[in-house]
Automatic annotation (TrEMBL):
UniProt-listed Gene3D superfamilies: Zinc/RING finger domain, C3HC4 (zinc finger)
Tree of life domain: Eukaryota
UniProt keyword Transmembrane present: no
Pfam families for the chain: zf-C3HC4_2
Keyword Manganese belongs to the record: no
Record keywords, A-Z: Metal-binding, Zinc, Zinc-finger
Start-end of Basic and acidic residues biased regions: 188-227
SUPFAM superfamilies on file: RING/U-box (SSF57850)
Region Disordered, residue ranges: 141-249
A Gene Ontology term for the protein's cellular component: nucleus
Stretches with biased composition (Acidic residues): 141-162
Listed name of the protein: Zinc finger, C3HC4 type
């Protein structure tokens, strides 16, 4: 069968007269989670390898093993991939039959919620409620090699026999001071990014928690209705037996 590609990048077959049916123009496996093998639900990116998984799948895996399940690199960070999630949502709008059933999505959301709540409790139990730490392993310290290189360069300049006026050359203090300012700006940017991510994480956790509470409430209502219906049925059967016994005498 021959395929043609239209101006929007969508493929259509010459033998297919139903123009209302869209055709996927890229490999669907790019949207699949490598753990559950389904289209990803709330896709997450693992750093530094950049492999993608469902949030519920990768969080459950990460609670047992801190390596990427696909390449086995150490997972330094797990973040939500907003761009990929947008692509997946558009794909599922075009191909609704690919969307997983509600029970599966609820299970994934509850796995994710369990992880977020565990980490939230851990942060609260840590000193300072897991405050942003400028000495964290993901951020450079003042002992960085960049400072040593600059010190060596200064010593080299002093030994080369050249003379510099104050307008031609920075002093050592000026140079190191400039690095301090750059580091302060970079640390501030990282702190802002960290706070933004934490706020988004908390907002999602609250939304998942509210959805779970609503499901639990509806389950309780359904269970209560079921108990009342069962009790009413038992009373009616008991009344029928009594009436039947009385009629027989």
């Amino acid at each position: 069968m021959l395929y043609r590609e239209d101006g929007n990048g969508l493929k259509s077959s010459e033998g297919d007269n139903d123009a209302s049916k869209p055709t996927c123009f890229f490999d669907e496996s790019l949207l699949a989670c490598d753990i559950c093998l389904e289209i990803m639900h709330n896709a997450m990116n693992v750093s530094p390898c950049n492999h993608k998984f469902c949030a519920g799948c990768i969080y459950e895996w990460n609670s047992l093993n801190n390596k990427c399940p696909k390449c086995r690199w150490n997972a330094a960070d797990i973040t939500r991939d907003a761009t990929l999630n947008s692509i997946i949502e558009q794909y599922l709008i075009a191909f609704p039959e690919k969307r997983r059933d509600k029970a599966q999505l609820i299970e994934l959301d509850e796995r994710e919620l369990n992880h977020l709540e565990q980490w939230d409790r851990k942060r609260e139990s840590d000193e300072g409620d897991y405050d942003y730490d400028m000495e964290d392993q993901f951020f450079e310290s003042e002992d960085s090699d960049s400072f040593e290189v600059q010190d060596e360069q200064l010593e080299s300049d002093e030994d080369d026999g050249l003379e510099y006026s104050s307008s031609d050359r920075w002093s050592e203090n000026d140079m190191i001071g400039s690095f301090d300012e750059d580091d302060d700006e970079n640390d501030a940017d990282r702190q802002d990014e960290y706070i933004s991510r934490r706020n988004l994480e908390k907002a999602r956790m609250e939304r998942l928690r509210r959805e779970k509470e609503e499901r639990d409430r509806l389950k309780e209502l359904e269970a209560e209705r079921s108990r009342k219906t069962s009790a009413k049925s038992k009373k009616e059967k008991s009344r029928e037996r009594r009436c039947g016994t009385g009629g027989g005498n």
